[in-house]
Amino acid sequence: MSTQSLLTVRDLNVVFDTARGRVPAVRDVSFDLAPGEILGLVGESGSGKSTVLSAIMRLLPGVAVTTASAMRFRDSDLLTLGGDRLRGIRGTGIGLIPQRPMTSLSPVTPLRKQLRWFLGDLPQSELEDLLDQVGLRAVAERLDGYPFEFSGGQLQRLLIMLAALARRPALLLADEPTTTLDATVQAQVLRLILDLRERLGLGVVFVSHDLGVIAQVCDRVGVMYGGRLVEAAPIGELFDRPRHPYTQALLRALPSRYSRGQRIKVIPGTAEGANRAPGCGFAPRCPRADDHCRRQEPETRLVGTSLVRCHYAQNTGEAAA
To answer: What is the pTM of this model?
Structure first.
């Protein structure tokens, strides 16, 4: 795997101007992605994961204000690109797998026509070859049908084909691509993404709320809470020795860690207001928090091989139970 950065994000902030005031959605997020690497972003709903992907693609609504000290794809500055140059990178340089396959396509337009919008008049033999690569050769004769005539797994594979194969981008942004799928189809989609990474050398940012899925596909993982990246580490380090109290709580809440009849240790409270709280956003839910945590926002520090945003991370690293 190359160590040269394919994607660089530094100090990314996204604020939404709403009728009730300015709402910060992403705060000071920084990371790098190398070619062929899969970086997972995990956290509760509302933590800012999908907003990060939308900011990279420059697909946020007009009420969003995006700032960063750097946001580069290869040598292109994604913050300043506009017009045809930005559209030229979308799809060809950066592919996006949207979150919900059943609602990401026009429900009133046959699939074949929608494929032409993106692929042009591709010869049938080339289209069948693309479908074959994602395990959809059998539906090649059904493309005059509408999206509701296909399963969620088939539509998700179709979207992966468009995002990762049709234009061969170097970077793939996957926004919870398995959330709506059953366990069998989910496993097939994950194997497909790993296979495409191996064959095409894709760099992937993989967003999920499911740590079990993250463990199967990612090389590194960033844990988000209240719009911030609170911990980033190689996948083995994060699962074996989580440093941030929120990461530890997430791992303790995994159902796979419990026997039948055991009570799962859930995280008390909710994340509401975490993106506006003074001090550490996790402090209201953290068993280790003190007055210093509630008053002073922690800086990101290197602890072992993990980057952690916690005042007491040096003392909180623990083997995952």
So the answer is: 0.89
